[in-house]
Structures are given as structure tokens and as C-alpha cells.
Amino acid sequence: MSVRNLYRKAGMGIGAAALAVGLWSFSDDLFQISKNLDVFASVYKEVNLNYVDDINSAKMVKTGVDAMLSGLDPYTEFVPESEIEDYKLHYVSTQYGGIGTSIFTRNGKVYVSEVFEGFPAQKADIRPGDQIVKINDIELTSRNNEQVSQLLKGSKGAGIKIQLKRGDAPAFEKSLVREEIKQPNVSYYGIVDGNIGYIKLDKFLENSADEVTNALTNLKKSNPTGIVLDLRSNGGGILQEAVKIVNLFVQKDVEVVSQKGKIREKNFTYRTVTQPVEGNLPLVVLVNGRSASASEIVAGALQDLDRAVVIGQRSYGKGLVQQTFSLPYSSLVKITIAKYFIPSGRCVQALDYAHRKDDGSVVKMADSSLHEFKTRSGRSVYDGSGVFPDVPVKQERFADVTQTLISKLLIYDYANDYRAGHQKIPAAKAFTLTDAEYADFVKYLSSKNYTYSTASEKILTALKTEAAKDKQYAELQPELEALRNKLSSTKKNDLQVHKTEIKQVLENEIAARYYYEKGRYEANFKYDKEMAQAVKTLQDRPLLASILKGEGNYRIIGKPQTTLAAARLDGDAR
């Protein structure tokens, strides 16, 4: 027998053995699935029959399914029939029938928190701070936000009667007709300093690309010198919308993103399909730590293609693709089916859900596992760490006093009082609180309780606790008390020390009372450091060209050690 035939015969034997092993493995998988489903059903049956109290079957099963999926990633989730409408509103479309308000509960009462411009509530002069007492004669006592929202929503064209109370005035009633409420994906666009076009995109849901196209088309009528696409705090959404938005700025037939998973049929590469609306105008994309998923596809693809300068902070790092699958009884499951890869070949996923610690906690991608990739012009970029900005801008944290005034709703309340006492204010872009008005706000706070602990005070408290544990407190007490008194004395000046940022939040809130969400943006532009850097970069053409060519310090974008040192993955940016 020839050597060739020996190898051929051996190969056939190996192939048959491999097939046998594969069939056995597949059969074993089926047995394990059948076994575990049988165990699950049996446990449920016995608990349902024998548990001492009545159980909520639907809630119990959902708890079990949620626990099963929790070991995968935060984006793989089960949606029961009862939550389908809320799911569609959050992930697919922002369209519903209503009056155009958002609400919140406070001390057991329901208040209007925001009014959307152009909808029934705004037309009827319903304002933030108004208490909603009744809806269609239904008392709202003990009802939560979700229950009240359901009462406000209804069919387009249906009437609704609302009883309200404003301040100390008697209750009054408004009769409105519900309209189709469609919250825009583009919450603001306009021309800012330097004749630069600005587009704020909040989410990637239905029609996001159409809205950005409309904004871009209208901005071009003003012959802008550049465009800023603001994706800060945009948690993402529909991948295809991201591809369409990249196509607005990139030539036809360019790869934008590819998705790759274990099911080959679901692997796909998305390319641009039309000529761009604006392929040459200088472009900046703003991102921060809560820019995720589809936002990272847009920012990362435009960076990889050297089409835009990315400014801000490192993005969240979600490089996973989900797909929904219909289940019986109108429920569904959303499953992570793939990772996505942007043009340089990198995946931005920053958390490694497949390799958890023994306690179940998730770890960031290790330094050693990060790889270098190249943009179209040869700049170095890295995977496993989100999208790192070409021009980093440190994110400023509000002082403890400012955060407290916001969280205790004191700035919100003062804005309502200001609106009640001032019929109009200048245009939002020009609106500034005078020193006398700020002094009035400080006086307003003098009768309010807004106690808070500064970072220094928290450290001092911890030091006192440790000193007590070590039995050294008695010895250190004089120094610790002196330091506490010093900190307390310094704290009294916080309203003046942090005046600029408190004024920023105040002006933002007050402008919204007159000019709604657009007013918030326009009042805040003068304080926005990332926006200022974007304008500066777009106006400095040599700098812009240097960044995109990767000259000097711009040759490497986010070295691994820098990226991981700056990593902040707090919160779920879904």
C-alpha cells in the first residue's frame, strides 16, 4: 500500500471518529438541555403546589429567567408581554399618544418636571412645578410614576381632563386633547459661534438618520465652516441608523462596521450605499463616558477613516450587537449575538463578560490582550477600551454644594419661582443671571435645608473612625476637631467659591422654563468646555489637518496604559 493510501485511509478513520465525537457531543448537549428544563419545570410545579403562600407565577418565572441570563451580559434580557410597550418606547421608537410632559413624585405628590415644546401641555400653559392633582377625576394619591404616565397616555385625539395646582394658588383644571407625541432623536441643531453647525443626537432609534440628514441639510444653508456632531451621553440604539449617519459624511462603498458571532449567517459587513450629504466639511464628534454602542460605531468609524476629530472623554466601550427574538405569548428575548468591529478592525468592547472573576464580577480587558490597529492614514488606535478621543478634555465634576442643590431640587424650585415672577427673559444664548439675582438666590437658600458633606469632610470622618479603632482618637481629638471647624468655616463660602458653576446650572434651568429643551442647550454653550474645544479645533485648519494626518503627538490615540488608567465604567449606558 502506498504512503498516500495509508494517509487517505487514516484520514477517513480520523474523520469518522471526529464525526462520531461531534454527534455524541451534540446528543449530550440535547440531553443536558432536556434534563435541565425538566428540573426547572419540576421545581416550579412543586413550589406552585406546595408553597405556604400564594405565588405570582409570571413574576416567579421572570425572576428565574432573569437569573439565568444575568450570568451573560447586561444586554441579554427577557421582556414579558406586560413590558413590551415600554420596551418599544425605549429601544425602538419614542412615539405615543399624550400631552407632552414628563413627571416625578415628591412627598407622595405628582409634579410636572418638564414640558415639551409644541405639544398640548405647553400650548395650555402647563409648567414645570405644577402639581397634578387629578386626571379624568381620578385622584393620584399613592400612585407611582408609571401609573400616572399610563393615565396621561392614550389614543391620539382622545380628550383628557387634568386638575392642577400651582404654588399657593387654588387648584385649576385644563381640558386637553392628546396628540401623537414623538420625541425627536435630534434634540437640538443650530449655528453656534464661528458659524459652525451643531447637531445634538440623543439616541439611535427609528428615523435618527433622517433627522440628522434634515438637520445637516438645513445647517448647510448657512454655509457653516464646520460641523459638530454631539454624541455625549448617547447610549446607542439601532446599528443600521449609525451606518446611515456615517454615510452622511463618508463616500459611497466604504466599510463602516462588521458584526461577527458564532452563527456565520448572522455575520455581516455594513458599507455606505450612497454619496454623502457632506463629504468634505470639517467635522468634530463629541463623546464622553456615557457614549456607547451605536455612538461608538459613528465616532470610531469616522475616527478610523480619518474623517472626523473626536473630542471629549473615552467612550463607554460597548462593542456588542443584540437581536430580538419573538417568544410565545407576545414576549421576546434580546440576545447578544455578535461583536462589532469598526473599519480599522478593532472592537471597542471594554468589559470581558466571558471571563468573570470567581465572585462573578466583570473585569476590563487586560493590558496584554489589547491590540494596536491603524486608521486609514496610519494613526495608531487600540481595541478593548472604547473610543479614545483625539483631543481629550477633562470632564469637570460639579462641587458637592452644586450637586446637593440639584439633588434636593432647590435649583429646580427656584427656577419655578423665577418663572412666576418674570414674564420674559432675554434669548437663551444671551441670558445671564446678574450678581443681584444670584444674591437673591443665596438669600432664598438661607431658609432651606441643604446639608451636605464635602469630600474632605468624608475623609476626616473616616480618619476619626480609624483613629478610634486604633485607640488614638483621644490623643488626636484636638487636631481633628480643629480641622473639622476649619473645614466647616471654609464650607460657608462654597456658594461664592463655586458661584460660576452654580450660575451655570441655574441659568440652564431658568432658560428651560421659557425656551424649553432648546433653551437648555443655548444657555449652556458659553460654559461648555468640550464645545469650546470643538470650535477652536475647527477654526484652526492646520491643527485639524495635523490631527487627521497623525503628526507629532497625534500619531498615537490612547495608548493602552493611558486608556486603562482613565477607565471609568460606572453605570449601564444602554
Automatic annotation (TrEMBL):
| Single annotated GO MF | endopeptidase activity
| Keywords associated with the record | Hydrolase, Protease, Serine protease
Offer one Pfam family short name for this entry: PDZ
Please give the CDD domains that the UniProt record associates with this protein. Peptidase_S41_CPP (cd07560)
One GO term describing the cellular component: outer membrane-bounded periplasmic space
One Gene Ontology BP term is: signal transduction
| Start and end residues of each PDZ domain | 88-155
Q: Could you tell me which PROSITE patterns the record lists for this protein?
A: PDZ (PS50106)
Give the protein family: Belongs to the peptidase S41A family.
Name of the protein described by the UniProt record: PDZ domain-containing protein
